[in-house]
Structures are given as C-alpha cells and as structure tokens.
Amino acid sequence: MQFVYYTLAAIILYFLSDWILLQIEKFRGEPFKQQRSTVFLLIIMVLAVASFKAIELLITG
Amino acid sequence: MTLDELIPLMPPFQAAANTVSTVLLSAGYYFIRSGNRGIHRNCMLAALTVSAVFLVSYLTYHNLVGYAPFAGQGWIRPIYFTLLGSHIVLAAMIVPLVLLTVWFAATGNFTRHPWIARWTLPIWLYVSVSGVVIYILGFHIYKPEI
Fold first, then answer.
1. Pairing with A32, which of A17, B71, B108, B111 sits 20 to 30 Å away (CA)?
2. pLDDT tens for residues B120-141?
3. Can you tell me the distance from the alpha carbon of B93 to that of B96, in angstroms, rounded to the nearest whole number?
C-alpha cells in the first residue's frame, strides 16, 4: 500500500508546483508564455524525484 | 454538489490527472534506470491508480455529455484530428499492455516485464501527454461553442 503515499504526494506536488510557478511569475513581473508548461514540468519533476526519494527513506527508515 | 455542477470540472480534472500520471511515469522510469526497484514499483502503481481514476472520469463525462465538436478551423483541424485519432487508438491499446506489464512484474517474470515495458512506457506517456494537449486545444485555445 506504499504506492498510496506516492499517489498523494504526486497530487500535492501538482498544486505546489502550480503555486511555485505563480510565485516565479510574480517575481519576474510577467508570465511565462510558450515555455510555461515546460517550466511547470521541470519544477514538478525535480520536486517529484526529491520527494519520492524522501518518502522511500521515511518508509524504509 | 450536483452532477450538473460536477460535469464542467471534469475536463480540467482529467488534464490534471494526465499530468500527474506523466510525472509518475517519468519518475518511475528515472528510478528503474537508477536501479531503485522499490520507488519504481510505487511510482508505476501510483500512475496506474491515477490513470484508472482518469478513465472512470473520462468515460462518465463522455457518457453524460457526448462529444463537443472541435471549434478550430483551417490548418489546425488536420493536426488536431491526427493527434486525437492516434490518442484514441493508442489509449485503447494501452489498457491490455499496462495490464500485461503489471502482470509480468507481479508474477516475478523479470524477463518479459522489461521487454513489454519498452513498448508500454512510451505509448502510455504519449497517451498521457497527448491527452493534455488535446484538452488545451479543445477547451482553451479553441473553446467549444455550447
């Protein structure tokens, strides 16, 4: 049932990445245009790999 | 919340589910290439769960609403329908492929599992990504006339 943690983490990361993207756009003062999806995917992938490794460490101790 | 209120929320939910599925599949691939079977298995099972929820939502939505005609005109139409056609054909193919891939892993057949996964993963990723692109084209760039 460990995969449930990964499913929940991925859903949370989706919203977190969206929030981070909005903060970056606020900081830049303009929205990303054509690259917006790429930047979003880059943020969520980095967060996902780090979070999944952290979950594994937490589960296995 | 009534069903009528729920229906307009279903397409963006399905696009989000496809995105989450894409992330889980890519992470799962990264972890198996790194030799971490545990995280790979959990990522792939999570992707399977999200995709199953997506499929239920997708079938419910199209059963209740039907298919809105694509509003785009001109050069975008052949591109959209080629993408949609390939998405539908491969989405139908991916269900037995995923089940077989999971079956080989669950039964410990690690000769056939990676062999079939070489086909399953790119098709599954294509279906997930093209689903998001179809949603963006059909619901945002070329909004349906309801």
1. B71
2. 999 999 998 998 899 889 888 8
3. 6
- Please give the average per-residue pLDDT across B14-33, as a whole number: 94
Comparing C-alpha atoms, which of A46, A50, A41, A49 is closest to residue A18?
A41
Please, what is the Cα angle at A41 between A36 and A44, to 5 degrees? 125
pTM reported for the whole predicted model? 0.90
Three-state DSSP state, B49: helix
List the domain boundaries for chain A: 3-60
Q: Phi, psi (5° rounding) for residue B71?
A: -85, -15
Beta strands in chain A (DSSP E): none
B135 contacts chain A (CB < 8 A)? no
Contact flag A6-B23 (C-beta cutoff 8 Å): no
Q: Where are the domains of chain B?
A: 3-141
Q: CA nearest B106: which of A3, A57, A54? A: A3
Q: Which residues of A touch B46 (CB under 8 A)?
A: 3-4, 6-7, 10
Cβ-contact B71, B137 below 8 angstroms: no
pLDDT exceeds cutoff 70 at A1: yes
